[in-house]
């Protein structure tokens, strides 16, 4: 067949084959003794939430919001400045590295220097977000129309022409994207609680680990409420006010002595064999080979397996779920229910979902795959569903399964693949951090290295994670270019 | 009586698309709809379709085909309602021999037999139009409602194809812009202008000049 659909089909078959291969190698056992009982207990907790059990609840909420707002403020400033230099390869590479490392790993890294402090919380969000903003803003500027700038009178200085003829073209996009990222930052900030920072995630983890499911459920409800109501009270005009309030309440600070910083830079991060006075190259090679053999390769392998398996399930779930919200199917009531389900799955961070699933199913890959696929699948389904609303089908188009398979699916499939491939990189990033929950991806080894105070090892492992992410990003970009896929909508939920 | 419209008016976004249309079409008539663009031809066709949706083969201008699917699949889609959804799905994944032959035969008559495996987004405008007409013909209905089905083809090919399409249905209503083609192939002409019928008579009573009135600017 000489059809466009065939090319899309081949790419799908290749991705499916890798996904199935991953499932073949994946450890998807249930390791808890009685998942049903645990599930029933958790379910009971969700039916009987206890909002008064958590002490310092308001403080936790405050910390969650201040890290998020301050982190985004710093990140957006840095990202904007980097975006101005986007034509430099060095800047592009640097921001790719910044965003390839997950907030949680940045948090673990800054914990070593600044301890459990407000500065750690701020930087853990600001640094990766700086890389993300740099990329998105850089591409906005790259893709914007240059004609207005060219039409300025000759001799206009670059500074003025930027403010008058370049920035106004992308300003609205930047604002919209910034608002979306604030929501993401609140989620990231909550997750930082899992490495000990005093955000809402900390209390969530404690409650769930102690089996206090009513307390945990109340926290989860509160978290959902905060995120879903964000648009109501975090108005753009009020943003400076909120930011000022958080700065007043929790200024970013850390009690760091210069000795500690020097020790970190000159000792902790130096590979162990190099710390002796008379070190040899062979010792460093042995150390690296050892690390490669025992941690990097298994960690990368498991991350890749989990990520590919999750990508497959994500794709399947997205294709099953997008009709729930599509105006091409169902009626107002069914679409309303579909929207509620997708909003719920999109709002809950995959890490949090994975955490609850690990409690029920034990730390195999199964909870990780489920959590990643449900969350990402809902995002892709949402984007696909919204795209189907723009289709105008002929009036005699068939209904039901025929409509889905013949009229709608072929038309949205290029977009579906673009959304999915675009999310692939993010799935890999999230897969790595699931290690913190005990699933043996790369993050498991990174977390262990940090808790054994072996920062040198942790850095090498993080570096390996960056490489994996950059490779996945390159493959995804290559595939999208080969298929000439345009997702058409920006990365916004 | 196949179609009957009494005082039909349609307003969209505050503008009159159709204004008090009275129309009656009997079984066996081959009607051509003429009129400048924006006269309301497509809207009138839609209104007719609503009266006989189950008996009408439908060949619209917009959104008629699925670009990334092959010519085979686009023609096969005319028959989706004749089979179970699972049978259709099987044919989407891998066309069955019987269906391939039937669709192939029709494609041969339409002059696109060699394009059966090609997706519509890789066809010329004329080839895509033949495919769209193929989908309508493959639905095997009694009535054909077609909106400019041969506008991208040259005169000779267009006439041959239109005659083929008309011969497969006992009653047809076709929107056309080519006045001569309408006079040659159809037996009744309805002329629309600004949402009103200003000409409605058998072809033998009309000459080419009579139709010019439709396109004259005020």
Which key terms come to mind for this protein?
heterodimer; A: 493 residues; mainly alpha; MetI-like fold; 2 domains; 20 helices; 75% helix; disordered C terminus; B: 218 residues; alpha/beta; Rossmann fold; six-stranded mixed sheet; 8 helices; 38% helix; globular
In words, what does this structure look like?
The complex is a heterodimer of chains A (493) and B (218). With 493 residues, chain A is mostly helical. Chain A has 2 domains: 1-30 and 272-493, MetI-like (MetI-like fold, Orthogonal Bundle), CATH 1.10.3720.10; 50-268, MetI-like (MetI-like fold), CATH 1.10.3720. Chain A has 20 helices and no strands. In chain A, helix 9 runs antiparallel to helix 10 (213-228), helix 14 packs antiparallel against helix 15 (332-347) and helix 19 packs antiparallel against helix 20. Chain B is an alpha/beta fold. Chain B folds into 2 domains: 1-55 and 144-153 and 171-218, Rossmann fold (3-Layer(aba) Sandwich); 64-140, no CATH class. Chain B has 8 helices and 8 strands, in the order E-E-E-H-E-H-H-H-H-E-H-E-H-E-E-H. Chain B has helices at 41-51, 71-76, 85-93, 97-110, 125-138, 155-167, 179-185, 208-215; strands spanning 3-12, 15-25, 30-34, 56-59, 143-147, 171-175, 188-193, 196-202. In chain B, strands 4-5-6-3-7-8 form a 6-stranded mixed beta sheet, with helices on both faces. Chain B has a two-stranded antiparallel ribbon with strand order 1-2. In chain B, a hairpin with a 2-residue loop joins strand 7 and strand 8. The longest helix of chain B is centred in the middle third of the chain and has 14 residues, at 97-110. Chain B is globular, with a radius of gyration of 18 Å. At the A-B interface, helix 1 and helix 18 of A face helix 3 of B.
């Amino acid at each position: 067949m000489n059809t466009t659909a065939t090319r899309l089909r081949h790419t799908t078959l290749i991705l499916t084959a890798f996904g199935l291969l991953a499932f073949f190698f994946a450890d998807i056992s249930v390791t808890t003794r009685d998942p049903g009982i645990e599930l029933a207990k958790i379910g009971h907790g969700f039916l009987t939430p206890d909002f008064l059990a958590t002490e310092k609840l308001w403080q936790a909420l405050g910390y969650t919001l201040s890290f998020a707002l301050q982190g985004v403020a710093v990140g957006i400033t840095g990202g904007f400045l980097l975006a101005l230099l986007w034509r430099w390869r060095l800047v592009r590479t640097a921001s790719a590295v910044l965003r390839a490392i997950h907030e949680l790993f940045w948090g673990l890294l800054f914990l070593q220097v600044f301890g459990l402090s407000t500065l750690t919380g701020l930087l853990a969000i600001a640094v990766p977000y700086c890389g993300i903003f740099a990329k998105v803003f850089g591409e906005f500027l790259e893709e914007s129309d240059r004609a207005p700038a060219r039409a300025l009178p000759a001799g206009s200085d670059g500074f003025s022409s930027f403010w008058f003829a370049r920035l106004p073209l992308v300003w609205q996009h930047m604002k919209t994207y910034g608002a979306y990222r604030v929501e993401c930052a609140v989620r990231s900030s909550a997750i930082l609680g899992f490495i000990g920072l005093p955000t809402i995630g900390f209390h969530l983890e404690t409650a769930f680990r102690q089996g206090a499911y009513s307390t945990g459920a109340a926290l989860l409800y509160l978290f959902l409420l905060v995120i879903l109501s964000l648009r109501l009270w975090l108005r753009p005009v009020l943003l400076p006010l909120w930011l000022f309030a958080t700065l007043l309440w929790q200024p970013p600070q850390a009690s760091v002595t210069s000795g500690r910083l020097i020790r970190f830079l000159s000792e902790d991060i130096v590979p162990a064999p190099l710390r002796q006075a008379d070190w040899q190259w062979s010792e460093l090679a042995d150390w690296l080979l050892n690390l490669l053999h025992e941690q990097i390769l298994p960690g990368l392998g498991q991350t890749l397996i989990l990520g590919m398996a999750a990508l497959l399930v994500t794709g399947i779930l997205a294709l099953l779920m997008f009709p729930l919200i599509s105006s091409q199917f169902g009626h107002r009531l069914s679409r309303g229910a579909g929207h509620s389900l997708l909003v719920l799955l999109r709002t809950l961070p995959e890490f949090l979902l994975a955490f609850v699933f690990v409690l029920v199913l034990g730390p195999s890959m199964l909870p990780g795959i489920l959590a990643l696929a449900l969350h990402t699948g809902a995002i892709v389904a949402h984007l696909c569903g919204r795209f189907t609303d723009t289709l105008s089908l002929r009036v005699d188009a068939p209904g039901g399964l025929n409509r889905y398979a013949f009229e709608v699916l072929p038309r949205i499939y290029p977009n579906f693949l673009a959304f999915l491939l675009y999310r692939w990189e993010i799935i890999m990033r999230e897969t790595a951090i699931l290690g913190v929950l005990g699933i043996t991806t790369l993050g498991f080894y990174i977390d262990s290295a940090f808790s054994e105070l072996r920062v040198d090892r942790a850095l090498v492992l993080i570096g390996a994670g960056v490489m994996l992410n950059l490779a996945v990003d390159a493959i995804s970009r290559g595939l999208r270019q080969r298929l000439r896929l345009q997702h058409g909508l920006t990365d916004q939920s | 009586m196949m179609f009957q419209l009494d005082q039909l008016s349609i307003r969209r976004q505050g503008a009159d698309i159709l204004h008090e249309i009275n129309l009656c079409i009997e079984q066996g008539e081959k009607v051509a709809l003429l009129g400048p663009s924006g006269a309301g031809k497509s809207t009138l066709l839609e209104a007719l379709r609503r009266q006989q949706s189950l008996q009408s083969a439908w060949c619209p201008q917009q959104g008629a085909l699925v670009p990334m699917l092959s010519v085979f699949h686009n023609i096969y889609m005319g028959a989706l309602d004749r089979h179970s959804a699972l049978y259709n799905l099987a044919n989407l994944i891998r066309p069955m021999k019987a269906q391939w032959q039937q669709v192939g035969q029709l494609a041969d008559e339409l002059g696109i037999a060699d394009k059966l495996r090609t997706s519509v987004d890789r066809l010329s405008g004329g080839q895509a139009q033949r495919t769209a007409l193929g989908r309508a013909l493959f639905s095997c209905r009694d009535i054909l409602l077609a909106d400019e089905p041969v506008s991208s083809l040259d005169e000779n090919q267009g006439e041959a194809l239109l005659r083929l399409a008309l011969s497969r249905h006992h009653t047809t209503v076709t929107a056309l812009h080519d006045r001569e083609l309408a006079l040659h192939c159809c037996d009744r002409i309805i002329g629309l202008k600004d949402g009103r019928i200003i000409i409605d008579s058998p072809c033998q009573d009309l000459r080419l000049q009579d139709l010019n009135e439709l396109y004259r600017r005020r």
